[in-house]
Every structure is written in C-alpha cells, then in structure tokens.
Amino acid sequence: MSIDADDSREETGVLPVDISLTLGEGGELWVARDEDTGVTSQGPTREAALDNLDEAVAGYRGAGEPPSDADLREAGIDPERNESGSIDESDIFE
C-alpha cells in the first residue's frame, strides 16, 4: 500500500488497497494500478506513482471539490456556457 504510518491521506478513507506497481516499458516511469477500480497512474519514482494513484482513486470515488469559475477559466472553459450532460449525449465520447 502507498501509505506511511503518519500519512495524513488516511483521513480521506479512499486509499487503494489492492495495487500493482510496475516499471513502465521505457524504464523511466513507474505505473501504479488500483486493481479494485482499474484506476491507473504513474510517476518518475515508485513513491510518486503511489501518491498520484492515491489522488486519482480519491477523485474516482468522488473526493474533492467542484471546480470554481476561476478554475474553469484557467482550463479554457467558459463557466457561463459550461453544461453537464450525459456521456451518451456527448459527441466527444462516440
């Protein structure tokens, strides 16, 4: 598991439990995968890959805050025109 005894990430309760950790094909990045959810992340070190996986799994499970209007603008999204909808109705996910 990717947690140290004094790690504050324990508070979220969303850490991966069953993970695999492998060195990527190019040998430069470590790949960490949560086997229960299928969420995968990577990093230049094993620790970074596991930290990134913890964050990705937390996001997968709904942790975090919705983006602010400023966050959306920074990502190039106009908050006034931002609409949520079904993936089935999106032409991006065809």
Can you describe this structure?
There is one protein chain. The chain has 94 residues and is α+β, with helices and mostly antiparallel strands. It has a single domain, classed as Double Stranded RNA Binding Domain, CATH 3.30.160. The protein has two helices and three strands; from the N terminus they run βββαα. The chain has helices at residues 46-60, 69-74, and strands at residues 19-23, 30-34, 40-43. The protein has a three-stranded antiparallel sheet. Strand 1 and strand 2 (30-34) form a beta hairpin. The chain is elongated, with a radius of gyration of 16 Å. 14% of the residues are buried.
Terminal Cα span: 36 Å
CATH class: Alpha Beta
- Overall pLDDT confidence: 80
Number of domains: 1
The gyration radius over C-alpha positions equals 16 Å
Instruction: Give me the side-by-side strand order of the main sheet.
Output: 1-2-3
Helix percent reads 10-25%
Largest sheet: 3 strands, antiparallel
Keywords, separated by commas or semicolons:
single chain; alpha+beta; 2 helices; 94 residues; Double Stranded RNA Binding Domain; 3 strands; 22% helix
Helices and strands in order:
Blueprint: E1 19-23, E2 30-34, E3 40-43, H1 46-60, H2 69-74
Antiparallel strand pairs: 1-2, 2-3
Describe this structure in a few short sentences.
This is Type II toxin-antitoxin system HicB family antitoxin. Residues 59-94 are annotated as: Disordered. By secondary structure, this protein is an alpha+beta fold.
